[in-house]
Design goal:
6 helices; 159 residues; mainly alpha; two-stranded antiparallel ribbon; globular; 2 strands; 52% helix
Length: 159
């Protein structure tokens, strides 16, 4: 068995310079119109978790944003979406923990291409996208917003 390939570590400072929160803020404006709420969502995606997750989220969201722009896709309106729950520790969450959601929702329409709405498989896909720490769940929701816009644009051109 060959030895494992060395992992080329990039200095955190270089990754931090590559991440551009203002670009992500502009990209998410249609889905999170309030500037303070949008800055909070972006801070959760790009300022929390391991640095490689932050860089990966910025790269994927930035590229999806370029595709949305190139396709002339507008944000999908009126589609079904589920809130991204703000998961607070029990000692911090007063009252019902279901009362706390992030200001960005997860569009579920695109998932119907993978599983029928109302099936356990559909529910499992939604659960997988919402699970995990905030930087994962919010990055997933943001990507689904952009994917939803792209599918909506593709639908306009189908004959």
């Amino acid at each position: 068995m060959p030895p494992p390939r060395p992992h080329h570590r990039v200095p955190t400072s270089v990754i931090t310079r590559a991440i551009q929160p203002k670009k992500l803020e502009a990209l998410l404006e249609p889905w999170v119109p309030d500037a303070e709420e949008r800055a909070f969502v972006v801070r959760c995606i790009l300022g929390e978790g391991p640095i490689h997750h932050r860089g990966a989220s910025f790269a994927l969201l930035g590229l999806l944003g370029m595709l949305v722009e190139a396709a002339g896709a507008a944000p999908a309106a009126g589609g079904e979406a589920v809130p991204v729950p703000l998961r607070l520790p029990p000692h911090v969450a007063p009252g019902d923990p279901d009362d706390h959601d992030y200001p960005l929702s997860l569009p579920t329409g695109p998932l119907e291409r993978l599983a029928a709405r109302g099936t356990p498989e559909f529910a499992a896909l939604v659960d997988c996208l919402l699970d995990g720490p905030a930087h994962h769940a919010l990055a997933n929701a943001a990507m689904m917003c952009l994917i939803d816009a792209l599918f909506a644009r593709l639908g306009e051109h189908r004959t």
